[in-house]
Amino acid sequence: MKIIVDAMGGDNAPGAIVEGALQANRELGVDILLVGRTEAILKAMEAADVKELPSGVEIHNATEVIEIEDDAATAFKKKKDSSMTVGLTLLRDGVGDAFVSAGSTGALLSGSTLLVKRIRGIRRAAMAPTAPVFGGRAILCDCGANAECTPEYLLQFAYLASLYAQKTLGVASPRVGLLNIGSEREKGDSLRLAVYPLLEEAHAAGRINFIGNIEGNTAMMGAADVIVADGYSGNIFLKSVEGAGKLMAKEMKNMFMHSAKTKVAALLMKERIAEFKKILDPNEVGGVPFLGICKPVIKAHGSSNAWAIRNAVRQARDFAQSTYIEDVQANIEFMKVSVPAENA
Amino acid sequence: MKIIVDAMGGDNAPGAIVEGALQANRELGVDILLVGRTEAILKAMEAADVKELPSGVEIHNATEVIEIEDDAATAFKKKKDSSMTVGLTLLRDGVGDAFVSAGSTGALLSGSTLLVKRIRGIRRAAMAPTAPVFGGRAILCDCGANAECTPEYLLQFAYLASLYAQKTLGVASPRVGLLNIGSEREKGDSLRLAVYPLLEEAHAAGRINFIGNIEGNTAMMGAADVIVADGYSGNIFLKSVEGAGKLMAKEMKNMFMHSAKTKVAALLMKERIAEFKKILDPNEVGGVPFLGICKPVIKAHGSSNAWAIRNAVRQARDFAQSTYIEDVQANIEFMKVSVPAENA
After folding, report:
1. Which of A250, A271, A272, A273 is the best mutation test for B, with the most CBs of B within 10 A?
2. For a surface tag, which of A42, B16, B162, B255 has the fewest beta carbons within 10 Å of its beta carbon?
């Protein structure tokens, strides 16, 4: 198992990326192929007190770096020797089993779609983060890759995420909910009304476990294992939850800093507060998989620290070890809507 | 100032409604007109230890009650003698200055639109709750009244909410943000792309203070005073924040109940925890105004307790005392998009 890592992508590259990748190699026993400027990578290794390339760690030189300012749709083409383009090409060519990058989301999505390609029959790749919900975690799909969606895209997201939830959450029959503004079947906009019967049909055929519409609050209370959304509203969901978490964390801090008495309480609560913070810490999850691409690509978040990269590599390994892509291929005929919306 | 109150709407009607309305009469000095089954209202008064109708409190009998099961679009018509229909009619006829109901949102919206009517030129009434954000509060508009929107609706929501924020948040020039999935102007779906230049134009003319796109997380961090959204994604935003708040409140409870040590901390934190809970308590805000209706209508949430009703009456009073509706009328020409989307 070899994971290709974009050493140059993200706010803390290459330092935190290299450190996290080396940690994954040590702790998880996976081989690592670091892609980027060799000199910068070696320097980052030195800073992490690693004098020699450990066994199972290689470097593949790439001289360019895709920056946030670069046009997302064309960056991977314009910068042919960028760490991201080279990394994706190595993945396509089978040099490694999965690719991890903390670089530009848009560029990674375009590059994955056009270089590595989608699974045949899949209309759009989607991003499927794992969201913290009460009592566990849920897979949200899509969360921003596709702002504009057709009913068929949403049907495909339901399958893609349900199959992924089976692998990653270990749930045999994940409860699939359609993110909506009420639980009744007649709720929502025209997109929701159009996709509802498609999901019902898939449920009736025993292919997915569709539990109906779910609202943002019940989703957070753990009502579903899979939350199906277009990229626009999925992103609103995810960012709103993130914002509410930040707001509450700030208010909680104020609460504990209020007086001498509350500061004593803070001391008594120290370990608990650390545990509490972990719930909403994106570094714990690792990254966001691009579902629908024919090889595993994991987007680590832009501000990833070494721990986040280590976890993203773990996630990439689990993805690559699973039969996920074969499972999608086996179900592809059920994910098509009879009136063809466009060419795949 | 007389506020008409639907005594029969909501999970805790008529008890909590009557109690809250009487409290508002006592504490805020507003006259109250309770609409509903006289007998049930008198019984609720008795239960609240009020033997006689206080000065400034009247009852208007209405024999029917609109239930959650009733069809929202037609309930107000089918149940002509319902507390909601009678209350809205009294409002229309000028018997009172504003209407408060904790009953069915859909029925109240249909009834307000068809009985009380929209302000001339306004395409759709919108719901504009006040959301807790870091450092204060923000007005979200729409949050669920209109699942499907045109660019013109969103332009109107921006004006409606900006003028409302001036009155209720006391901000002279409210920062208006368009809820979106990125801050750059080219982000989002076709609706967002179409409304962005309309908002820019209104900004350039000095009519609203448009600050551009805002994401769910920055909105929660207090980046805008007004958050403009279609009813579908506004509802996703609101419910997700609510759900995240609930999740964190539950996790916080677990945190404090963890051990003898943390229970001591909980005791030290008692007053702070109570303050913290208030941040996300919908009972504190009161209710949600229907903007665009030509008289003030406030939707109190379904599970309102007496305190929530008292606060909704306060909100209704403030709305009715303001020049809000005149302000909207004065701006109506600027809220039209030259290509008419449909009849008003």
Report:
1. A272
2. A42
Orientation of helix A151-168 relative to helix A306-321, angle to 10°: 100
Residue A343 scores a pLDDT above 80: no
At B130, which helix (H) or strand (E)? strand B130-133
CA distances from B180 to A144, A274, B215, B224 (A): 10, 32, 5, 13
CB–CB of A179 and B236 under 8 A? Answer: yes
How would residue B279 be classed by pLDDT, with cut points 50, 70 and 90? confident
For B20-71, the three-class secondary structure string (H helix, E strand, C coil) is HHHHHHHHHCCEEEEEECHHHHHHHHHHCCCCCCCCCEEEEECCECCCCCCC
C-alpha–C-alpha distance, residues B237 and B241, integer Å: 6
A105 token code pair: 């989301």
In the structure encoding, which two tokens stand for residue A178, read together?
């359609």
Q: How confident is the model at residue A286 (pLDDT cuts 50, 70, 90)?
A: confident
Question: Does the N-terminal peptide bond of residue A142 adopt cis geometry, omega within 30 degrees of 0?
Answer: yes
Q: How many C-beta atoms lie closer than 10 Å to residue A262's C-beta?
A: 19
Distance of CA A119 to the CA centre of its chain: 17
Q: Indicate the average pLDDT of chain A.
A: 94
Residues in contact with A169: Cβ distance below 8 Å, sequence separation at least 6, in sequence order: A130, A136, A137, A138, A139, A225
* β-sheet bridge partners, residue B5: B34, B100
Indicate the range of A218-232, A252-266, B323-337 predicted with least confidence: A252-266
Nearest to A215 among B179, B239, B251 (CB): B239
pLDDT band at B69 (very low <50, low <70, confident <90, very high): confident
Predicted structure pTM score: 0.92
Residue-wise DSSP of B182-197: SSSTT-S-HHHHHHHH
- CB proximity list for B230: less than 8 A, separation 6 or greater: A189, B142, B146, B147, B148, B149, B153, B154, B191
Question: pLDDT tens digits for B192-214?
Answer: 999 999 999 999 999 999 999 99
Say how many CA atoms lie within 13 Å of A96 toward its Cβ.
32
Helices A15-28 and A306-321, axial angle in degrees (round to 10)? 50
A55-67 in b/e burial notation, b at 16+ Cβ within 10 A?
eebebbebebbbe
**For all residues of chain B together, what is the average pLDDT?**
94
Q: Do A181 and B236 touch (CB under 8 A)?
A: yes
Are A252 and B252 inside 8 Å of each other by CB?
A: yes
* Interstrand relation of B57-61 and A31-36 (parallel, antiparallel or unpaired): unpaired
CA dist A33 and A18 (Å) reads 10
Angle between helices B306-321 and B151-168 in degrees, nearest 10: 100
Smallest Cα distance from A241 to chain B, Å: 5
